[in-house]
Design brief:
Largest sheet: 5 strands, antiparallel
Shape: globular
Number of strands: 7
Structural class: mainly alpha
Helix content: 40-55%
Strand order of the largest sheet: 4-6-7-3-5
Low-confidence stretches: 7-41
Distance between the termini: 65 Å
Number of helices: 18
């Protein structure tokens, strides 16, 4: 049976299903074993899901995927409403940094991280020598992404990605992941029976998406395969990804600092050498002079002038290739510090401050932009542009321009 004749069988089956009440018919060729012993009957598919299948099959064939693999994947594609709901769900409240850290960092995660560092010390030292990425950081990513392999995800990746490719916020992106998944299979790196992960396409111990693993995955255990579900491959691949994304060998993520009472906060947006920050009144948290351990550093006040002050080094930015959020990068850095025997943040967080809702962030963006402080959009998402615009508004209104946005600090602009 040719590929496109097979596709026609799928299309007819799904269209008949959409018109009746029976479960969708499966094509006779090829027959795939169920992933679980007793798979319940699936709900009817959207009427035009088969049209997407046909279009995807053509694009996969154009990308060089073998007909047999396309047929096998199509036999397992299925529209999953839960994936669409997860993709569309956006948090109503912007979580404060300390609330995020409370969930991400725990004594148990650090204790287990130290145990894993000891268990895989030889491998991690070898990886660090090759990539420059510190062993504690590699283990921190492992703990953050899958709790050291305890939660690699149990969602069928083919169903999830095909659903997102059909009806998601980033359809082209999801299709790219599906094709990359097929390429990983054809390369012999992963098997059809392994394909379970997160609803967003994360795979294995460090939750790579298929396109990134296709590019940066390496063989960490010498078996000739690059498999994100194998611990050694996942750890080596994570370090390879970070190393090729700009990781600075021997450097840390940054450090907590103490600022002089008369510190000039107008320098927040500047990249300066640690020695220059020292001249402006920044010292280590214990009062010692700042070491000259990075070429440049940026000052970040995640909770404004009433919370901790942090100098972030270039590796802080590199961490964000995994997850482009400052809170995530800080969590990775602090977990790595803990695994290495260091402490956490010493300054107190202003836990009485409350975050804004999405509607309030949107109102804030609209008002700032209307007053001449461009937030580069009014989407209700709190980002660097919004904080930068808010800091400019603070400076113009006689406030300390720390860019910290809360119910209290933003009250004039949201009520």
């Amino acid at each position: 049976m040719t590929l496109f004749r097979s596709i026609l069988v799928f299309a007819v089956a799904y269209l008949l299903t959409a018109c009746g009440t029976r479960p969708p018919l499966l094509p006779v060729e090829p027959v795939q074993p169920p992933l679980e012993p007793e798979t319940p009957a699936q709900p009817a598919q959207p009427a035009n899901f088969a049209e997407w299948q046909q279009a995807f099959a053509r694009r996969a064939a154009a990308a060089g995927i073998a007909d047999s693999d396309i047929r096998q994947l199509l036999a397992r594609t299925h529209y999953e409403e839960k994936v669409v709901s997860a993709d569309r769900k956006q948090p109503e409240l912007n979580k404060m940094v300390w609330a995020y850290l409370d969930n991400a960092i725990s004594d148990d995660r650090i204790r287990k991280g130290r145990a894993q560092l000891a268990r895989y010390r030889d491998l991690l030292q070898q990886i660090e020598a090759q990539t420059g990425v510190g062993a504690a950081y590699i283990v921190a990513f492992w703990g953050m992404e899958s709790a050291y392999g305890e939660n690699t995800g149990n969602v069928d990746l083919i169903q999830a990605l095909s659903t997102l490719a059909y009806e998601g916020r980033r359809r082209d992106f999801a299709e790219q992941q599906l094709i990359a998944l097929l390429q990983l299979i054809e390369r012999g790196d992963v098997g059809w029976d392994e394909l379970r992960g997160s609803w967003a396409g994360g795979m294995g111990h460090t939750q790579f998406i298929p396109t990134t693993f296709l590019q940066y995955g390496v063989d960490g255990n010498g078996d000739g395969r690059r498999d994100p579900w194998q611990i050694e491959d996942a750890l080596a691949s994570t370090a390879n990804y970070l190393g090729k994304s700009g990781w600075q060998r021997g450097q840390r993520w940054g450090r907590e600092v103490r600022l002089a009472p008369d510190f000039d906060y107008r320098y927040i947006e500047n990249s300066l050498a640690p020695a220059q920050w020292g001249q402006l009144g920044a010292r280590q948290a214990d009062g010692a002079a700042l070491p000259n351990d990075a070429a440049t550093a940026k000052l970040w006040l995640p909770a404004g002038v009433n919370g901790p002050a942090l100098l972030t080094y270039p590796n802080f930015k590199t961490i964000k290739v995994y997850n482009n959020a400052d809170s995530y990068a800080l969590a990775i850095g602090l977990i790595a510090d803990g695994i290495s025997g260091g402490g956490g943040i010493s300054a107190s967080w202003p836990r009485d401050e409350q975050g804004l809702t999405r509607d309030q962030v949107q109102r804030l963006q609209q008002n700032l932009t209307a007053q001449g402080y461009d937030t580069k959009g009014t989407d209700g998402v709190m980002g660097a542009n919004t904080r930068r615009a808010f800091a400019a508004w603070q400076a113009a209104n006689g406030q300390t321009p720390d860019g910290f946005i809360s119910q209290r600090s933003a009250a004039p602009l949201i009520h």
